[in-house]
Amino acid sequence: MNLHSSMAKIRIIQSQLINFFQKEDVVEDQFTNLVKLLTENRIADNPNEMTLFFRMFVAITNNHGRFHSFSEKLCKILHFYKNCLMNYSPKELLELFGSNKRILLFIIENGILQVDNNFIKYILRKDRIIDQYLQYFMVEARPFLKEQWVLDELSSNYPELLESIKAEIPTNFQINRTVGDNPDTIFQIIRNDSVEEFQAFLSNNSDLSTLFHPSMYETNRFLMSEINNGCTEMKSITLIEYAAFFGSYQIMRYLHTNKVEITPSIWLYAVHSNNPEIIQ
């Protein structure tokens, strides 16, 4: 198959994959149709096309708007291609999926990627530290605190992180990192677009324009970090930007009515929501 035909095939699959993630619920017919398309096109038979598919999969799951079923859908597709994932070396797996904490968690938990010194070195990279990989993988990282080079690296450059990794595992840690969203109550309310709960929660005259840093459980790259002047920095976002990202129209309207400023950057968040009410 020539390059033109291969790309045409991938574009069709991309369209179906995006459509699969855009639906709020897990619909078995949709997954069945997606699997049928992937099987008929024999993606798994061509290593180059398989890699191209995974790169596309990562790009979509890194940036796509989220519903409560997002993690389940992601895992269904990864389970379908589990045997194919076994064909990649640890280095290749990190190159392919390193930008997505949730996928890394899946391939670790399913025995596809072993946590070793190379993995620890990877999550200790500066950009991964900013995206809180060490906290997200604290359970896997803890045994390596016995390694002197790990202790030296953390105590010299990230002493606060060293203490947090040594501390007690947070309540609901496994559940929260599996879901991959900010578990704080205010953000759960925003994702559900429950304006009555939102008003009640903020009845103490909270500053509606306060900036928030991402949770360590956050797995959506758009919400985790940004590039400023060539340097990666942890992202700070407002409640109205978070509402726009998740298509929470009622809460966004409430915030706007209460004089929260809407800046031009809101469009970047709104586009991710795929909510026409927000975009209009």
The biggest beta sheet is recorded as: 2 strands, antiparallel
In round numbers, the mean pLDDT is 88
Strand content: under 5%
Helix content estimate: 55-70%
Order the strands across the largest sheet as they lie in space.
1-2
Termini gap? 42 Å
- Please report the total strand number as a whole number: 2
Overall shape: it is globular
List unreliable stretches of 5+ residues.
none
Give the C-alpha Rg: 20 Å
Question: What is the succession of H and E elements?
Answer: HHHHHHHHHHHHHHHHHEEHHHH
* Contiguous helical run count: 21
Strand-pairing-aware structural class: mainly alpha
Structure description:
- This protein has 280 residues and is mainly α.
- It has helices at residues 3-22, 28-40, 47-63, 70-80, 82-85, 90-97, 101-109, 117-123, 126-130, 133-136, 138-141, 148-157, 159-166, 173-179, 185-192, 195-201, 221-224, 239-245, 249-257, 266-273, 276-279, and strands at 225-228, 231-234.
- Helix 1 packs parallel to helix 3 (47-63) and helix 18 (239-245) packs antiparallel against helix 19 (249-257).
- The relative contact order is 0.08.
- The model has no long low-confidence stretch (mean pLDDT 88).
Question: Which helices and strands, and how do they pair?
Answer:
Elements: H1 3-22, H2 28-40, H3 47-63, H4 70-80, H5 82-85, H6 90-97, H7 101-109, H8 117-123, H9 126-130, H10 133-136, H11 138-141, H12 148-157, H13 159-166, H14 173-179, H15 185-192, H16 195-201, H17 221-224, E1 225-228, E2 231-234, H18 239-245, H19 249-257, H20 266-273, H21 276-279
Antiparallel strand pairs: 1-2
Helix pairs in contact: 1-2, 1-3, 12-13, 18-19, 18-20
